[in-house]
Write a structure and sequence with these properties.
A seven-stranded parallel β-sheet has the order 3-2-1-4-5-6-7, with helices on both faces. The longest helix has 29 residues. Helix 1 links the parallel strand 1 and strand 2. The termini are far apart. The relative contact order is 0.14. By secondary structure, it is α/β, with parallel strands linked by helices.
Length: 282
């Protein structure tokens, strides 16, 4: 029997990257999946967004793993669209037990140079989108009466400042306050709320020229090996980045009954990057 057998999990940002990985991992452990993604690009973000073809590939992978899936194109900033997806999911699967509020974007710039629109769109997606996702799903979870788990994707940038990304760091700190408040409000209903806080995860959000340019002056192109070398010092363990599956395993733990009395916590998945460390002089 799977670790989330018979449960239904709604995953935002599910078309690719961490979201797809979370959907697939939960399906492998018996969950029915509600996959949500906007499937579009934003002109405030330097890398292309997911596509409808990406979302179709998530459907294919979940189905190939033996899972049932409902996939819908919806913007986490759109309350009506989210509520419609929730209603359809409840009608199809009987309820929602797990929420992975994963959808997010990143862009870069010095804080005093960020245009209003870049700042606002970051908060709209990464903070308000999480709030709207939770607000859309919680009534259905309460009506189900079986408790549940909400897992919010924050970041190590939600634990410490991230230079050249004040808007991103502010949003990721913001979801911590939201998580802690929801954890208090929902505890009596046995609904747990936690964040996962990954460091660098190798997805299209990271593997693009805009991100690579943050590590060198003058936008000098970096080779793959040079990029790995620049990222390695961000971790105590000798790795340049995490794989999506590393975060998905943490999400699965928080979604499962193995963490049934864990709520209101930030779980770093960061190869030791947020703990103070210094390499010995050897």
């Amino acid at each position: 029997m799977g670790r989330v057998e018979g449960k239904t999990a709604l995953v935002t940002g599910a078309a690719r990257g961490q979201g797809r990985s979370h959907a697939l991992r939960l399906a492998e452990e018996g969950a029915q999946i509600v996959a949500v993604d906007n499937c579009s690009s934003l002109d405030t973000v330097a890398y292309p967004g997911a596509t409808t073809q990406d979302l179709a590939e998530t459907v294919r992978l979940v189905t190939a793993a033996g899972g049932r899936i409902l996939a819908r194109q919806a913007d986490v900033c759109d309350t009506v669209a989210l509520e419609s997806v929730v209603d359809e999911a409840v009608a199809k699967f009987g309820g929602i037990d797990i929420v992975c509020a994963n959808a997010g974007i990143i862009s870069y710039g010095r804080s005093w140079e960020l245009p209003d629109r870049v700042w606002q769109e970051m908060l709209d997606v990464n903070l308000t989108g999480v709030f709207k996702t939770a607000r859309a799903v919680i009534p259905a979870m309460l009506k189900g009466g079986s408790g549940g788990s909400i897992v919010i994707t924050s970041s190590t940038a939600g634990l410490a400042g991230l230079g050249n990304a004040a808007h991103y760091s502010a949003a990721k700190h913001g979801v911590t306050g939201l998580m802690r408040t929801l954890a208090v409000e929902l505890a009596q209903h046995h609904i747990r709320v936690n964040t996962v806080n990954p460091s660098v995860v190798y997805t299209p959000m990271i593997d693009n020229e805009a991100t690579r340019s943050m590590f060198v002056p003058g936008n000098v192109p970096l080779s793959d090996e040079e990029f790995r070398q620049r990222l390695q010092p961000l971790h105590a363990m000798p790795i340049p980045w995490l794989e999506s599956a590393d975060v998905s395993n943490a999400v699965l733990f928080l979604a499962s009954d193995e963490s049934r009395h864990i709520t209101g916590v930030q779980l770093p998945v960061d190869a030791g990057g947020t703990m103070p460390f210094r390499y010995p002089n050897t």
